[in-house]
UniProtKB/TrEMBL annotation:
InterPro entries per record: ARM-like, ARM-type_fold, DMP19_C, PBS_lyase_HEAT
Keywords: Lyase, Membrane, Transmembrane, Transmembrane helix
Protein name (record): PBS lyase HEAT domain protein repeat-containing protein
One MF annotation (Gene Ontology) recorded for this entry: lyase activity
Gene3D superfamilies the UniProt entry points to: 1.20.1420.60, Leucine-rich Repeat Variant (1.25.10.10)
Stretches that traverse the bilayer: 6-25
Keyword Lyase applies: yes
Domain DNA mimic protein DMP19 C-terminal residues, every copy: 361-475
This protein's record includes keyword Transmembrane helix: yes
Species whose genome carries this gene: Planctopirus limnophila (strain ATCC 43296 / DSM 3776 / IFAM 1008 / Mu 290)
SUPFAM superfamilies recorded: ARM repeat
Pfam families cross-referenced by the UniProt entry: DMP19, HEAT_2
């Protein structure tokens, strides 16, 4: 979905730009780079823009020699990615595969890490780079050499091998992927599933491979996990819907005893599958008195959405009752459920489609309010007011302020209003670069005020997502696709 790409941008634009420019400028600015360096040095943004422009302009000659390719593969063992070596190898494509496979057999590949094993922005080893390149190729010939890494003592190597093997998704990958999905390490299993998701998107996974994954994925449906976050149900549905439905709705897994139940319901909701009333309604009744305890509040919230997707005459009354719940997640689910009942099934997607086609200025007033508030809340919750104002989302702070008032979030509107006053009587500049320079000039005292506003925002009880859903219902004509 388009709005998901926008939100992903919130998370990664700052972090990518920061680490790239930090790596480029680190010798001149010490070893303590990070968001504060990006914030206080607006010129970093131009450095990042130049970097991405240069990378986008890369080309590789069609007649590139094997000798040149081998030199590029050898350079994968250098920590600094000079001259966009990794990106150039991506452009080389299949011609590089034999040399990349040979590199997997290099003893250094199985042991070498960059940065003395500590945090490294970007790929942390030659193996990670090689695995990334091989998974992009989808070459079955890479399966056997990658499979050896599933026996590695270090879970770091196992997780990237699993990710690459899942992306390739051929019969040669079955045995090592079954090992990966049964690994004791949470992240190895998670990376394995992300790999299969990538292979499905790329239409590389063979029917034989996918069929073999089903039993291993089924075992994860009720396995406590700190990293998987419910990928198994969605993958099962993507592999074989009918088979998955019978598994997911069975009493073995569709039970409050299963601490992973929320992910099963969410996967069914996301895929648009209706849960039968004889299964769903007893579940809602059972969960209702348990919502004070995790994960039952999450289970109940997902079940409310499922009820909205398959309602009966009593559904609306329940949703309106839960708008007054003391649980923020349940409030949000109740508002979203009411929106679904009213026909507003995906307000965000409607907004982002309109934004993509028309631009912000052509949005209706309710659409501007919704978009600006949604982005403001997402940015601040992700990285505070400094992140909001340093990003392009801050261009629309006036609409965000008006939108917060329009949806009834008066306390949050006051917080934003106080933040804008730090920029002077005219408020933050609408131009992103100018506003960035304003932020960079903030004194330490102003920075502390911003931190305090962040804290107040996080402690505020106004439920933005619920209020946005109710606002979309009130202005329904602006949030549905015309027939």
């Amino acid at each position: 979905m388009k709005y998901a790409a926008f939100i992903l941008g919130i998370v990664v634009i700052i972090s990518i730009g920061t680490f790239i420019t930090y790596r480029m400028l680190r010798p001149r600015h010490g070893e303590n780079g990070g968001f504060s360096d990006w914030l206080k040095n607006p010129d970093y943004k131009q450095a990042a823009a130049d970097y991405f422009a240069a990378r986008k302009a890369l080309t590789i000659p069609d007649d590139i020699s094997d000798e040149e390719i081998q030199k590029m593969v050898d350079q994968l063992f250098d920590e600094k990615d000079k001259h966009f070596n990794f990106d150039r190898l991506q452009l080389v494509g299949m011609k590089a595969v034999p040399m990349l496979i040979n590199a997997l057999n290099n003893p250094k590949t199985a042991s070498m890490k960059f940065g003395d094993g500590g945090y490294v922005p970007g790929p942390a080893s030659p193996f990670e780079r090689i695995a990334d390149l091989l998974e992009s190729s989808g070459s079955p010939q890479a399966a056997q050499p990658l499979a050896k890494y599933m026996q590695h003592n270090d879970s770091y190597f196992r997780k990237y091998a699993a990710h690459a093997l899942g992306n390739i998704g051929t019969s040669e990958c079955i045995e090592p992927m079954l090992i990966a999905l049964g690994d004791d390490d949470d992240y190895v299993r998670s990376f394995a599933m992300m790999g299969v998701e990538g292979g499905i998107r790329a239409k590389r996974c063979t029917p034989e491979f996918l069929d073999a994954m089903v039993p291993a994925l089924t075992k994860l449906l009720d396995r406590p996990d700190n990293s998987v976050s419910g990928r198994a149900p969605g993958l099962l549905l993507a592999i074989d819907t009918n088979r998955a439905m019978s598994i997911l709705l069975s009493s073995d897994y569709f039970s409050i005893e299963n601490k992973q139940l929320q992910y099963i319901i969410r996967a069914l909701n996301t895929a648009g599958h209706k849960i039968p009333h004889d299964t769903l309604l007893p579940l809602l009744k059972t969960l209702k008195p348990l919502v004070a305890d995790y994960p039952h509040d999450y289970n109940y919230s997902e079940a409310l959405i499922a009820y909205a997707n398959h309602p009966d005459a009593s559904a609306e009354e329940l949703f309106r009752l839960e708008l007054t719940s003391g649980n923020e997640k349940i409030q949000r689910a109740a508002a979203e459920a009411l929106a679904i009942l009213s026909g507003v099934t995906n307000a965000r997607e409607v907004i982002f489609d309109a934004l993509d086609k028309q631009g912000f200025d052509q949005l209706s007033s309710p659409q501007k309010h919704y978009y600006a508030v949604f982005m403001y809340d997402s940015e601040v919750c992700n990285g505070g007011h400094s992140q909001y104002f340093v990003n392009s989302s801050g261009d629309h702070w006036k609409s965000a302020l008006a939108g917060l008032k329009a949806i009834g979030a008066e306390k949050r509107a006051l917080i934003l209003q106080e933040a804008t006053k730090l920029f002077g009587t005219a408020g933050p500049a609408v131009d992103n670069d100018t506003r960035h320079r304003q932020l960079a000039a903030f004194t330490s005292k102003k920075d502390q005020v911003v931190d305090g506003l962040d804290t107040r925002y996080y402690e505020c009880s106004e439920n933005v997502e619920a209020l946005l859903a109710l606002y979309a219902i009130k202005h329904k004509e602006h949030f549905v696709v015309p027939d």
